[in-house]
Design goal:
This protein has 118 residues and is of the alpha/beta class. The protein contains three helices and four strands; from the N terminus they run αβαβββα.
Length: 118
């Protein structure tokens, strides 16, 4: 019985934290970007090999720019595409984006503070 309770709790937490909460944050970030008239950056958009969520649902492509993390390269990309971006040196000028959404990203960084600063 305890095993079923723990498994149910884990699954519920995973679904909420990995799928439901990011969608809510995305809607709020998108609304703010529309209000200020600037594009939305999704950093950590995912690729099918990067996470279970991305493998099941595909990458998050609802931003104006959707990047998955790669600290050795970075290229600009257009809407609906997923490209790789160096989170320590995002290839766009400062204050270009109205909001940046990065869920489940910091734990993958060698220097989380540098990623936040960028």
């Amino acid at each position: 019985m305890w095993l079923k309770l723990i498994a149910g709790w884990w699954l519920g937490t995973y679904v909420y934290d990995g799928w439901i909460r990011p969608e809510k944050l995305f809607r709020e970030a998108r609304a703010y970007c529309r209000q200020v008239g600037k594009p939305l950056l999704i950093m950590g958009a995912g690729t099918p090999g990067s996470s279970l969520r991305a493998a099941v649902l595909g990458p998050q492509t609802g931003g104006d720019v959707n990047m998955d993390i790669n600290v050795t390269t970075g290229t600009a990309c257009g809407p609906g595409q997923v490209c790789y971006g160096n989170i320590y040196a995002i290839p766009y000028p400062d204050k270009h984006f109205g909001a940046a959404l990065a869920t489940h990203v910091l734990e993958h960084l060698a220097d989380p503070q540098a990623g936040l600063n960028e």
